[in-house]
Every structure is written in structure tokens, then in C-alpha cells.
Amino acid sequence: MPDADCYFGPEEVYRHFMNITKLKHPSRDKDHPEDGNEDEVRDYVAGCTNNIDNIERPIFYDPGATDAGKRVIVVRRKGSGDFSQAPYVTLQAHMDMVCFPKNDIFPLNVFDYDIEGEKWIKAGDRESINHPTKGTTLGADDGIGVAAALALLKDESLKEYPLECFFTVQEENDMGGAEHFDKSLLLGRKYINLDAENVTTIFYGCAGGSDFSLSGNVERSEMETDFTVLKVSISGLRGGHSGVDINKGRLNAIKGMAEILINLDERTARRDDGGASSFDLHLISMQRDEQAKMNSIPSSASAVVAIPRNMKEGFENALASQCEALKALHQPEENRFSWQVCWQGEVQAKPLSRASTDALLCLLSRIPHGVFRMIPENVKLVETSSNLASIEIGNDIAVIRGSNRSSNDSHMTALKNILDNIGFCFGYAVKYTDGYPAWQPNEKSLLLAIAKDVYGRKYPQYDATVIHAGLECSQVVAKYGSDIDCISIGPTIVDPHSGGERLKAVTVEQFYDAVTQILHRIFSNMQMSTG
Question: What is the pLDDT of residues 43-95, one digit of tens each?
């Protein structure tokens, strides 16, 4: 067994994964390429092919490429024996990861621990085990997929099968690699995505989505002489993936902060107590405190505000009451909710005017967050949702960003219409990215039928369904249409995109075994059909 603070099998998957956790690979944003770079993992993947027999040369890898579509890697291992002329089967994983709480978390400190007798893998420090918002992301999404693909290329039991491995970039930001790669790169037409997060589930469809932004003017005024400045922070929220976790009742930190300040602002608060717990409040700034990602629910936020100097004690007491009420409202999910007040010294920025403060807080309260509509045929599945992801207040402009998801084009349009109307009412310009398409399920898929049979034998309670999250399959299916047959599978990963991300150790070997069985079945069927 390797000398490390954790271990799981298969050993080749473990070895590759642990090597990847030492390398920087935050997802690159096309608009801010300096904020992320997967090149260390790209170089690692390309280097691994030197030790694998029957790899076709050259592999498709451009170390100096900057465009997402040219930064992908395609590796093919030729078939042999009875399968020397068989068509390739494609395995796909993405090389980037969401980095929480910041990009500079490498090398990751990875360790294992037990929950009710089951081993889990986590990153950060051991103090974060019982605190889901501490620690760092692990990068199992999708470092495990990358590690599994590299291991499968070298697996002796599969050595006769022609395999094509497709490693992409920027999945966590805009799926740029999957969207913009050259269609001629892939030869395989049976396509297994290794980026799912439940070992007993096969995905064969996913939601589409796009990001949005609202930008509008704010007005600042001089600081009044009898006012003082303080910073209010909330933290400890669960956060998580803005697709798969959006229906779990988790509080959005930005929405929570807006609600607290609205209830403390004397011009917007309810008057149930005659105004005794409300204040002449001016907003100076507000932000999400961890790195802002469109595909993660904010788990911490802060605001700098100005209030009358003689009301400091009353404000702290009223804030505590508001936070306690909000925490109670979101139990048991947000049992780690905490807050803090820090009195500030000199602040360079002027406060927003009363009108701008009130308008911005009310706007934040109106922007949708959470489930918009469930799938009528299966009320357990989310069809359409929205995630309010970030806010930035500049000298004279505020910008609010988020993302929408839906597997129904009409309801995606309806959600956009709501945002457009909100923007119009508040005088904010609303813009959308092109986004990514939905992957519509194919019930007649032969690959799905094979996977169902394999999973049915392994897991009597397995599920085959669609996911309310974006998968690169949607871009690939859009590119190749009905020519390609596609599924997505993976091990069990909990709370991705947050400091609580963890991997269930035993499921890695189960997942790997499922992939190998599916490959055996695919090529066995090919052999029978040509025999």
C-alpha cells in the first residue's frame, strides 16, 4: 500500500489521482485566463502516455495552445487481436476543478476518515471533517475521471480493445473545451463521460444553462459626520453545486445578507416592532467572500455599511436577532451558520445614497434563486432553476451575476423574461451568455441498455435518470447528433464545489469495475455481431 495519509483502490487510479492533487489546475475563464490554468495537469496527462503500450502517435496535444478547443487532449490506444479493426470507444473526463476557497490551494492536503464505518477522502485539514464549509475542494470532480481514464488505458484486461480518451478543459467555467474542439478529433461513437457523482446512477440526459448579469448605476453620497462604519459577515453555510444541490434548501449567502440588511434598514424593514430595530442604513459595499463561481451556491458574504454612531449597540443586537431567525428558518441544513460584526476605521469609499441602498437591496431580494420548476413527470427532479452567484459594487456601477439551468427551453425563456422584467423595473441592463444546450435523453440508446444491465447486476437499486446540472455530453451530442451514443457515470462525490467536497473511497473501485464491465460488454457485442 502506498505511503500516504489515505488510500483507495484500484492502485493505478489512486496513484494518478494523488499525483493530480499536487498540480495546479483551477478552471480557466476565457474572460480572465490569468485566474486559472490547467496546464500542469495537461502536461501530466500527456506525459503519462509515454508509458502505455499501443498508444497512437502523435497524440493530439498542443502544449502552447491558448484557445479552449485546442487545449483538449485526445489519446488513442489501438486495438489488437480480434479487435484490431473494431471502432473506438471514447472515455471522457475534464482536467480542471473548482478551487474553494481560492485558486491557490495546491498541493492539496488529502486524507481519509471514517463516517459510520465507511472511508471518505477529503482535502484541507482534519479540523474540517465535521465542518462542511471548512477545508478545500478535493478535485475528485473530475480528477477521479482523469485518473480512471489513464488507468483504463493501461489495464491489461482491456489491452485488446481500441480506446479513445478525451480530456477537456474549462468544464467548470463554460465547457469551452467540449464546445470548441474540432469535430474531426473524435473517432469513437460510443461515449462514456466519467464525471457523474453517484456510483449507483447512470445519467443519460442533463439540463442546459447560461450565465446572466445585471448591471446598473448606483449613486454615492458624502459620509455624514455622525455616522460610523462596520462590516457584517455571514459564513458557515453549506453552499455546494448550483445544479445538484439547488433543491436541498441551502441558504444563498448573498440572498441571506440582503434579507438581513433589508430587515435592518428603516426604509425597507417591516414595522412590526414600531421601527425600534431598524436603522438609517447606507450600503458601502457587498461581496461574496469565497471565490465567485457561477456553478456554486455562495456560502459566505459580507457587507460594509454606515449607520448612526449612537446606534452601534442596538444594531449589533438587532443583527443577532435577524441572523438567529434566518438560521432557525434554514435548519437543519444550515446548522453551521455564523455571523460577525467588525467596526471599521477610515473607509475610502463613499456610502451609497439612501435611494441607491434601498433599490439595490430590494433588487437582490427580487432576483430569483433556487428551484423555479420541477419536472412534471418526475417531481423529484428539478427542471428549471437559478443561482445568484456574485455581486460587485463599484464607484458608480453595481454588477450582479448568476446562472440559469433548465431542461425545457420554454421555461428557460420564462425565467429569462422574469429577469428581464426585474432589470427593467430597477433600471438594470440584463445580459446572457450563449450557454450550453440541454442533453435530451435517448431511451433507445444501446449503450444505455448495456449500462443498465451491468448496473442492474451490481446494484439492485440503481437509477438511470437525467441530472439538473451541465455535463459536457450536451456539447458533444450537439456536435455529433444522433451519430453518438452517450452515458455519464462516476463514483460517489458529496458536496462538490465546496469546502465539504468528499469522495466515498469504496465507490472508486466499484465505478472502475462498472466501466470495465461496460467495455467488455460493448466489445463482446461487436465480436458477436461480426462473428
Answer: 999 999 998 989 998 899 999 999 999 999 999 999 999 999 999 999 999 99
Contact of 71 with 108, CB cutoff 8 Å: no
388: Cβ contacts below 8 Å, ≥ 6 apart: 252, 254, 255, 298, 364, 367, 368, 369, 400, 402
Q: Are strands 110-115 and 118-123 parallel, antiparallel or unpaired?
A: antiparallel
Strand 208-217 versus strand 502-504 pairing type: unpaired
3-state SS, one letter per residue, for 198-242 = CCCEEEEEECEEEEEEEEEECCECCCCCCEEEEEEEEECCCCCEC
What are the grid coordinates assigned to 322, written together? 435577524
**Overall size of the chain counted in residues:** 531
Burial 479-497 (b: 16+ CB within 10 A, else e): beeeebbbbbbbbbbbbbb
List Cα–Cα distances, 241 to 32, 98, 124, in angstroms.
Answer: 22, 10, 19
Q: Omega before 33 cis (within 30°)?
A: no
In this prediction, residue 272 has a pLDDT band, given cuts at 50, 70 and 90, of low
Say if residue 478 is exposed, middle or buried (CB neighbours under 10 Å; 0-12, 13-18, 19+): middle
Residue 396 has a CB neighbour count (10 Å cut-off) of: 11
- Which value, in Å, is the radius of gyration of the alpha carbons in the chain? 25
Pick the closest to residue 505 from 123, 120, 151 (CA basis).
Answer: 120
Residue type, 350: K
- The pairing of beta strand 493-494 with beta strand 502-504: antiparallel
Q: CA-CA distance, 260 to 320, in Å (whole number)?
A: 10
Class of residue 523 by CB neighbours under 10 A (exposed 0-12, middle 13-18, buried 19+) = buried
The predicted model gives 34-40 an average pLDDT of 83
